[in-house]
Amino acid sequence: EFAAAGKDDLPVRFLLSHSSGLPGWEQPIEMNDLYDWERSTALLAAQQPWWEPGTASGYHAVTFGQLIGEVIRRITGRSLGRFFRDEVAAPLGADFHIGLGAEHEPRLGEMVAPAQAPDAMTDMLKRVMTNPRGWSPGVSRERAYRAAEVPGANGHGNARAVARVAAALASGGALDGVRLLPERFFDAVLEEQIYGQDLVLGLPIRWGLGVGLPSKEMPLPSPRSFYWGGWGGSFCLVDLDAKIACAYVMNKMSHTTMGDRRGLDLVAAVYASL
């Protein structure tokens, strides 16, 4: 189905490097459409890319989870949330959930919207973040949102859980006797896929396979480091040379699109202490 609209030769690495041209939904959708896995992925499969795939990146802020999740579902027969639980979270004992069970509701900290208007956004970012209609920090308080699998946007966990998964990566793919990935995998992760002005974020991003890589705009502690962050200011760094993983999460959201100092300063303090 994904071969429609000229996407028949689009490689998976374009999905991982946010260069497939599918950063948002072309057809107007509602939040309930986003929660409907079959509908949300079918719309992306039928959609024509917004630019020639592979020629530029454009952060797939929400669609990333649907696109990668459907690849996983077609290969394994399991949703991304279930696959992550079975293969990553449960073996590592990481308290992180994609599709949150109702029993965890009393433990949640509610998101606090930014106190000021967001930084200037590109036209494409506005297009991405206004479809589905009604998308806002307040939606995160609704049970339907928490229960749904929207892997690009609604993972629920804490910094300790994120850092534990990241620590398995920083240690070469294994932690406490649990191996997630072979060490050779990281050579592929660190291979530059695309580097230039991201059409959605409006900033230069150097992408590996699913992660941001060191660049002159984003200097990292070592060339074998990678990172990414989340809406509101969360941040995660993996350093394969130092075997260090750092994670920061928050519920008070920042107005910045990228570069929240709270997480970056904490990571800098970790390295200053070495």
Structural write-up:
The chain is an alpha+beta fold. It contains 10 helices and 9 strands. It has helices at 12-16, 31-35, 37-46, 63-76, 80-92, 123-129, 143-147, 159-170, 185-189, 261-272, and strands at residues 97-98, 155-156, 174-175, 178-179, 194-197, 204-207, 225-229, 235-239, 244-248. The chain has a 3-stranded antiparallel sheet with strand order 7-8-9. The chain has a two-stranded antiparallel ribbon with strand order 1-2. Strands 3-4 form a two-stranded antiparallel sheet. Strand 3 (174-175) and strand 4 form a beta hairpin. It is globular. The termini are far apart. The mean pLDDT is 94.
Low-confidence stretches: none
General shape = globular
How many whole angstroms does the radius of gyration measure?
18 Å
Number of helices: 10
Question: Which whole number gives the mean pLDDT?
Answer: 94
The count of strands amounts to 9
Class per helix and strand makeup? alpha+beta
Measured by DSSP, the beta-strand proportion falls in: 5-15%
Order of helices and strands: HHHHHEHHEHEEHEEEEEH
How do the strands line up in the largest sheet?
Answer: 7-8-9
Tell me the helix content: 25-40%
Calculate the terminal CA-CA distance, rounded to whole Å. 51 Å
Q: Biggest sheet, in brief? A: 3 strands, antiparallel
